[in-house]
């Protein structure tokens, strides 16, 4: 008799169409809200996670990163790239895949696309940080960099922060026009979005309550000069996310109160890589937990120096798993061979090869 029933070794696989279908079933606003709620709940469990800065392979063209994390019950990782010149090859700047495993057995529970999911989780994370850091009466946002991530940032801030006035700027006007068209077609509850394409970053930023920078440039960019930053602004800096790749004038960092995900990673990859190693920052999870102040004055400049942390992909994978199982979306695949005797892997192979006898010789 077997001591243990074999664990059904099937893995749920979610491709881009599955994730799009889930978004269709839930509706994008509910999906962003659900994701932000999951991110918040997991950030409040911060001490339970075994955390490390991501492991990166750098080249002149971009970065490929591996982002593992575990809470002792589940283990997740994402493999993601950032190649700002990928448009030349007809490829997106950012592409990702990831997996969720059980710690007790190592069984791979979920395997899936994380490209669309990264855009969603990054936007939900930005809005979650802004809920804690931006002025409560914020209603306008400048969105600098109008590529693949930008629609999701705009919609997350509209759905979760009540932003209704969007000013767009991109060095490529065609990118802003595409974004404006997509936003005009978006079906959002509440007041309609007002969307204006601007001629410069300065024009977009003037008078904005929130400024989101989400550009892609493989080098030290100056998307935002310190002179443009006004008292009370919240800055959501998303595009500077690896060594040598930043968006902000360092003078802004000296002027703002800076909030980060995981300091050992952000000091290497974020805007604060431009500052000394002891530059003061506050971990966002402490603000969410009520352990550290966020915004304390209406005229304070706050900055979320976002680089993207493995915990956010863990949350996104768990959210996807729950929703996909509830709505029966995805395909069960055999990533692990399902032999009845777990030690007889070769016997399982022989069984498979019965259908192709020519290969057995
Ligand atoms: N922090 C995070 O968690 C996170 C997650 C995903 C992506 N990112 C980063 O976000 C950035 C944007 O990603 P994407 O997928 O939207 O890239 P993308 O290539 O699709 O779009 C980038 C846009 O930025 C514009 N741009 C470049 N330099 C500019 C400048 N100086 N001023 C205005 N616009 C400028 C480009 O014309 C392009 O339209 C990337 O740098 C990526 O690495 C960060």
State the domain count: 2
Q: Write the element-wise H/E pattern from the N-terminal end onward.
A: EHHEEEEEHEHEHEHEEEEHEHEHEHEH
The CATH homologous superfamily of the largest domain is termed NAD(P)-binding Rossmann-like Domain
Low-confidence stretches: 1-6
Shape: globular
How would you describe this protein?
It is a single chain. With 361 residues, the chain is an alpha/beta fold. The chain folds into two domains: 138 residues, ornithine cyclodeaminase, domain 1, CATH 3.30.1780.10; 175 residues, Rossmann fold. The chain contains eleven helices and 17 strands. The strands form three sheets. The chain has an eight-stranded parallel β-sheet with strand order 9-8-7-10-12-16-14-15. The protein has a seven-stranded mixed β-sheet with strand order 2-3-4-5-6-1-17. Strands 11-13 form a two-stranded parallel ribbon. Helix 3 crosses helix 10. It is globular, with a radius of gyration of 22 Å. The N terminus is likely disordered. Bound molecules: nicotinamide-adenine-dinucleotide. The site of nicotinamide-adenine-dinucleotide (NAD) has 30 residues, from helix 3 and strand 11.
Task: Considering the chains and any ligands shown, give keywords for the structure.
361 residues, alpha/beta, ornithine cyclodeaminase, domain 1, Rossmann fold, eight-stranded parallel sheet, seven-stranded mixed sheet, 11 helices, 17 strands, disordered N terminus, binds nicotinamide-adenine-dinucleotide
List the helices and strands and how they pair.
Blueprint: E1 11-14, H1 16-26, H2 28-43, E2 55-58, E3 63-70, E4 74-82, E5 96-102, E6 108-113, H3 115-133, E7 140-144, H4 150-161, E8 165-169, H5 173-185, E9 194-197, H6 201-205, E10 210-213, E11 220-224, E12 234-237, E13 246-248, H7 250-255, E14 257-260, H8 263-269, E15 282-283, H9 284-288, E16 302-305, H10 310-327, E17 331-333, H11 345-353
Parallel strand pairs: 1-6, 7-8, 7-10, 8-9, 10-12, 11-13, 12-16, 14-15, 14-16
Antiparallel strand pairs: 1-17, 2-3, 3-4, 4-5, 5-6
Bound molecules: nicotinamide-adenine-dinucleotide.
Residues 82, 84, 93-94, 118, 122, 144-150, 169-172, 175, 214-217, 221, 223, 238-239, 241, 306-308 line the site of nicotinamide-adenine-dinucleotide (NAD).
């Amino acid at each position: 008799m077997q001591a243990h029933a074999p664990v059904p070794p099937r893995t749920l696989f979610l491709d881009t169409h599955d994730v799009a279908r889930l978004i269709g079933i839930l509706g994008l606003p509910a999906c962003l809200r659900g994701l932000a709620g999951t991110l918040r709940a997991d950030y409040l469990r911060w001490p339970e996670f075994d955390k490390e800065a991501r492991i990166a392979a750098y080249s002149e063209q971009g970065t490929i990163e591996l982002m593992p994390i575990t809470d002792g019950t589940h283990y997740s990782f994402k493999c993601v790239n950032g190649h700002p010149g990928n448009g030349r090859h007809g490829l997106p700047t950012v592409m990702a895949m990831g997996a969720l495993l059980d710690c007790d057995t190592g069984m791979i529970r979920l395997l899936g696309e994380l490209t669309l999911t990264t855009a969603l989780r990054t936007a939900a994370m930005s809005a979650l940080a802004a809920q804690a850091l931006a002025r409560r009466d914020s209603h306008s946002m400048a969105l600098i960099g109008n590529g693949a991530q930008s629609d999701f940032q705009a919609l997350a801030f509209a759905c979760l922060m009540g932003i209704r006035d969007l000013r767009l700027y991109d060095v490529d006007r065609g990118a802003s026009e595409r974004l404006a068209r997509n936003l005009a077609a978006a079906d959002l509850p509440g007041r309609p979005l007002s969307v204006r394409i601007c001629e410069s970053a300065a024009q977009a930023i003037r008078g904005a309550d929130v400024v989101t920078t989400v550009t892609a440039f493989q080098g030290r960019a100056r998307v935002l000069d310190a002179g443009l930053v006004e008292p009370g602004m919240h800055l959501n800096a998303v595009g500077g996310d690896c060594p040598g790749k930043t968006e902000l004038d360092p003078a802004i960092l000296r002027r703002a109160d800076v909030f980060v995900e995981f300091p050992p990673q952000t000091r290497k990859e974020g805007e604060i890589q431009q500052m000394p190693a002891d530059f003061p920052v506050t971990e966002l999870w402490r603000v969410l937990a009520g352990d550290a102040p966020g915004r304390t004055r209406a005229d304070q400049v706050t900055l979320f120096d976002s680089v993207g942390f493995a915990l956010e992909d863990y949350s996104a994978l768990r959210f996807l798993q729950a929703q996909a199982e509830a709505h029966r979306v995805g395909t069960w695949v055999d990533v692990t061979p399902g032999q009845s005797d777990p030690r007889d892997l070769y016997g399982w192979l022989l069984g498979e090869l019965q259908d192709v006898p020519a290969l057995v010789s």
